[in-house]
Amino acid sequence: MAMTKNGFPNATLEQIHWLSLYLRLPAGGVAEEFPTESACEDRFRQIRWPDGLICPVCSKKDFGNLTSEKFYPCRNCKTQVSDTSGTILHRRRLDLGVYFLLSAEIVRYETARSIPSGHDIKDRFGLAYATAVRLKKNVTRALTEVDGGLLGRCICVRDLTLPQDIDFGSDDHLIWLQGEDQRRRWRSVGI
């Protein structure tokens, strides 16, 4: 079976993936939904650790207080754990808000079957060109995971329930998503 450029088995599943993420984005946008870095961190923590922080080394939930460097020390094995440990955001130098905004932008571009250029990202976020290109590549790859991966689950806040009579991944699924997108556009202009 031929793969698409993003590693999806076929173009229909790729379109379903991106359109599903797009329809689950916040109605007012990511910047309105997560206006501060603290709000982004809270959302990331909530999605990453829904049952509370778990040590990746010993699997215990016994941690000391958050240090000034934003690490949680495991009382059992002494491992220093951060919210982003073991993710594409590990050792990040940019605000989490930049990742949230860029993720939403990539979802919008992919839904429109386009992609922002490295220069677009460089200019929008004030980054070096090489950083913008690497960031676009890493975020796009992360968003191709199931449900958009960790970043996708962070930025997608609206529910989207597929009708029971439609099979997941089918052409009917794609048609239903396209219709839902059109209905939302009509509602936004008062039709």
Topology:
Blueprint: H1 11-24, H2 30-33, H3 37-48, E1 72-73, E2 80-81, H4 96-111, H5 118-125, H6 129-143, H7 149-155, H8 171-188
Antiparallel strand pairs: 1-2
Explained architecture:
By secondary structure, this protein is an all-alpha fold. The protein has a domain at about 25-45 and about 90-155. The chain has eight helices and two strands, in the order αααββααααα. It has helices spanning about 10-25, 30-35, 35-50, 95-110, 120-125, 130-145, 150-155, 170-190; strands spanning about 70-75, 80. The protein has a two-stranded antiparallel sheet. β1 and β2 (about 80) form a beta hairpin. α4 (about 95-110) crosses α6 (about 130-145) and α4 crosses α7. It is globular, with a radius of gyration of 18 Å. The termini are far apart.
Distance between the termini: 42 Å
The low-confidence runs, each spanning 5 or more residues with pLDDT under 50, are: none
Q: What topology, given as strand order, has the largest sheet?
A: 1-2
Helix-strand category: mainly alpha
Mean pLDDT: 89
Q: State Rg.
A: 18 Å
Largest sheet: 2 strands, antiparallel
Q: Helicity, in percent?
A: 40-55%
Tell the overall outline: globular
The tally of helices reads 8
Strand residue content: under 5%
Order of SSEs: HHHEEHHHHH
Count all strands and give the number. Answer: 2
